[in-house]
């Protein structure tokens, strides 16, 4: 076993990486409120796992979406548990994200030299809200339908580009199959990919610059 470890150590310097991770200095003023970002990340990972599990049963069509959600909740093994964890973790993720943003703002974590960390965090906050909007539509019940109709209709108030923007969001002149397909694609592929990219930008910055000092 030691020979295998030595082989990897010689090429990857595993011990140096481990030492860097475990020996990072943590300022004495850090408290539980500095864990809110990590909790948000944990919720995101739970969302990915439970969401991936539900893709095996969910059908993104206007005729089958609601029935497939019912199947997940009533017939699929542990489906009710997986969807419930997904839903509650989504609410927790939004709450922790909001509290994290407030904590960073109130402690001045957005100031020089952490402006880029703050900007990537704001983008992640917008992506988190977008997860909520797109995910809310997927059961395709009455609440989902009218929520999507209202949300996608908001840009129509914008002069000149309002109507084309609404049609871009809906995929057609009215809310229907094209809308559900777009929201499903956004929720399961585009938003997770963008979130992962910005997290890979956000966390190394925190790692490099460290935690901001007390006010």
From TrEMBL:
<dbReference type="Pfam" id="PF00033">
    <property type="entry name" value="Cytochrome_B"/>
</dbReference>
<feature type="transmembrane region" description="Helical">
    <location>
        <begin position="184"/>
        <end position="203"/>
    </location>
</feature>
<keyword id="KW-0934">Plastid</keyword>
<feature type="binding site" description="covalent">
    <location>
        <position position="35"/>
    </location>
    <ligand>
        <name>heme c</name>
    </ligand>
</feature>
<dbReference type="InterPro" id="IPR016174">
    <property type="entry name" value="Di-haem_cyt_TM"/>
</dbReference>
<feature type="transmembrane region" description="Helical">
    <location>
        <begin position="88"/>
        <end position="106"/>
    </location>
</feature>
<keyword id="KW-0602">Photosynthesis</keyword>
<keyword id="KW-0793">Thylakoid</keyword>
<feature type="domain" description="Cytochrome b/b6 N-terminal region profile">
    <location>
        <begin position="4"/>
        <end position="215"/>
    </location>
</feature>
<comment type="subunit">
    <text>The 4 large subunits of the cytochrome b6-f complex are cytochrome b6, subunit IV (17 kDa polypeptide, PetD), cytochrome f and the Rieske protein, while the 4 small subunits are PetG, PetL, PetM and PetN. The complex functions as a dimer.</text>
</comment>
<keyword id="KW-0408">Iron</keyword>
<dbReference type="GO" id="GO:0046872">
    <property type="term" value="F:metal ion binding"/>
</dbReference>
<feature type="binding site" description="axial binding residue">
    <location>
        <position position="86"/>
    </location>
    <ligand>
        <name>heme b 2</name>
    </ligand>
</feature>
<dbReference type="InterPro" id="IPR048259">
    <property type="entry name" value="Cytochrome_b_N_euk/bac"/>
</dbReference>
<feature type="transmembrane region" description="Helical">
    <location>
        <begin position="32"/>
        <end position="58"/>
    </location>
</feature>
<feature type="transmembrane region" description="Helical">
    <location>
        <begin position="118"/>
        <end position="138"/>
    </location>
</feature>
<feature type="binding site" description="axial binding residue">
    <location>
        <position position="100"/>
    </location>
    <ligand>
        <name>heme b 1</name>
    </ligand>
</feature>
<dbReference type="GO" id="GO:0009055">
    <property type="term" value="F:electron transfer activity"/>
</dbReference>
<dbReference type="InterPro" id="IPR023530">
    <property type="entry name" value="Cyt_B6_PetB"/>
</dbReference>
<comment type="function">
    <text>Component of the cytochrome b6-f complex, which mediates electron transfer between photosystem II (PSII) and photosystem I (PSI), cyclic electron flow around PSI, and state transitions.</text>
</comment>
<keyword id="KW-0349">Heme</keyword>
<keyword id="KW-0472">Membrane</keyword>
<feature type="binding site" description="axial binding residue">
    <location>
        <position position="187"/>
    </location>
    <ligand>
        <name>heme b 2</name>
    </ligand>
</feature>
<keyword id="KW-0150">Chloroplast</keyword>
<protein>
    <recommendedName>
        <fullName>Cytochrome b6</fullName>
    </recommendedName>
</protein>
<keyword id="KW-0479">Metal-binding</keyword>
<dbReference type="GO" id="GO:0022904">
    <property type="term" value="P:respiratory electron transport chain"/>
</dbReference>
<dbReference type="InterPro" id="IPR027387">
    <property type="entry name" value="Cytb/b6-like_sf"/>
</dbReference>
<keyword id="KW-0812">Transmembrane</keyword>
<feature type="binding site" description="axial binding residue">
    <location>
        <position position="202"/>
    </location>
    <ligand>
        <name>heme b 1</name>
    </ligand>
</feature>
<dbReference type="GO" id="GO:0009535">
    <property type="term" value="C:chloroplast thylakoid membrane"/>
</dbReference>
<dbReference type="GO" id="GO:0015979">
    <property type="term" value="P:photosynthesis"/>
</dbReference>
<keyword id="KW-1133">Transmembrane helix</keyword>
<keyword id="KW-0249">Electron transport</keyword>
<keyword id="KW-0813">Transport</keyword>
<comment type="similarity">
    <text>Belongs to the cytochrome b family. PetB subfamily.</text>
</comment>
<dbReference type="InterPro" id="IPR005797">
    <property type="entry name" value="Cyt_b/b6_N"/>
</dbReference>
<dbReference type="GO" id="GO:0016491">
    <property type="term" value="F:oxidoreductase activity"/>
</dbReference>
